[in-house]
Amino acid sequence: MDARLIALVQERAVEGRLPCTEAFRIAEELDVSPRSVGAAADSAHVRLIRCQLGLFGYGEQKSIVTPAAEVSAELEQAIREGLILGRLPCAVAWAIAARFGIPRLHVANAAEKLGIRIGQCQLGAF
Model pTM greater than 0.85? Predict the structure, then answer.
């Protein structure tokens, strides 16, 4: 494990917790994979919080995902086309959000409405 990566994770963590957005910032700054940052966080006993898809790290409620009131046919199609082994990979959810110009949480809410689980966290959290 890269000592400078672990040191940066520890430096940026607050009370042993590192927000997802900060983990991705570290990955970009050091030109490493997000999964490497997640592994460094594990090594440093730092918890990842505030998932950008709303899936984990939000205190007692853990997740802030709620089923969308409705999902457009276009968004549903994009989500269904992105499934791998019945799950929507995190990176694909991000790409769909960018494509539709919507917040990442909205994609997670749409997936929840459709009964689709998100998997393959880019940081390795799940």
Answer: yes
